[in-house]
């Protein structure tokens, strides 16, 4: 593909070749994935992954704009979606529109993502009617960690019906796709089969219309904890620490810098 897909192109991938996506927070990471991902999410996971925050609750509009601008500079072929941070959209559709418009105008994002099912349907419809493509996010919604009572699997047993209703609601409200986080595989399969928009799984099912992972998790850069749904494709964290250990040893033994790293010149007599 030569140009970035639009949200409607992502919607049209329903039921086809799985949609590939990762999070990114910086220009070089965005450049690494630009040729391989259909869309890149500037996730509010940036707070935990890059800023050392204990949850996503402390992430601000300012942080999302700064990282969104950085990611945009690294993308030419993948679409960019930016997360709406906690507190920037829940109060009213009007508040959500003002902040979504700011995120799109400042970063050039083609769409925003927000957390919530039935209770956010009115807001999603309000945004879509005013030119803001919305990716929804249901199941485990980390911004609600304090009311959910932990990062546990959502939609088990009797809660399955409610999650199915959330999926239908965000689809009917006009979302162009929906992230399903940490839900039983059979329920993810059922939602994927039933709703008309692509499901993007994270801890969901291989049958989802697409998959997403936090890039620092799959590269082994974020190692504070590893959710079951993360597959590590590299160990950049431990590789990086080993490299730093070698550097420290080289400096202390004067093995670095070597002759090839320094500049020759005449010494004044
Ligand atoms: O912030 C994030 O990284 C996300 C993805 C895990 C879907 O919302
Ligand atoms: Na997020």
TrEMBL record:
Belongs to the PanB family. The lineage of its organism: Bacteria, Pseudomonadati, Pseudomonadota, Alphaproteobacteria, Rhodobacterales. Pathway: Cofactor biosynthesis; (R)-pantothenate biosynthesis; (R)-pantoate from 3-methyl-2-oxobutanoate: step 1/2. Its EC number is 2.1.2.11. Keywords: Cytoplasm, Magnesium, Metal-binding, Methyltransferase, Pantothenate biosynthesis, Transferase. This is 3-methyl-2-oxobutanoate hydroxymethyltransferase. It catalyses: (6R)-5,10-methylene-5,6,7,8-tetrahydrofolate + 3-methyl-2-oxobutanoate + H2O = 2-dehydropantoate + (6S)-5,6,7,8-tetrahydrofolate. It is an enzyme of class 2 (transferase). Its cofactor is Mg(2+). Binds 1 Mg(2+) ion per subunit. Homodecamer; pentamer of dimers. It comes from Roseovarius gaetbuli. It is found in: Cytoplasm. Mg(2+) binds at residues 44, 83, 115. The active site is at residue 181. Catalyzes the reversible reaction in which hydroxymethyl group from 5,10-methylenetetrahydrofolate is transferred onto alpha-ketoisovalerate to form ketopantoate. One of its GO terms (molecular function) is 3-methyl-2-oxobutanoate hydroxymethyltransferase activity. It holds the Pfam family Pantoate_transf. InterPro entries: Pantoate_hydroxy_MeTrfase, Pyrv/PenolPyrv_kinase-like_dom, Pyrv_kinase-like_dom_sf. It comes from the Bacteria. One of its GO terms (cellular component) is cytoplasm. GO terms for biological process: methylation; pantothenate biosynthetic process. PANTHER family: 3-METHYL-2-OXOBUTANOATE HYDROXYMETHYLTRANSFERASE. The gene is panB. 3-methyl-2-oxobutanoate binds at residues 44-45, 83, 113.
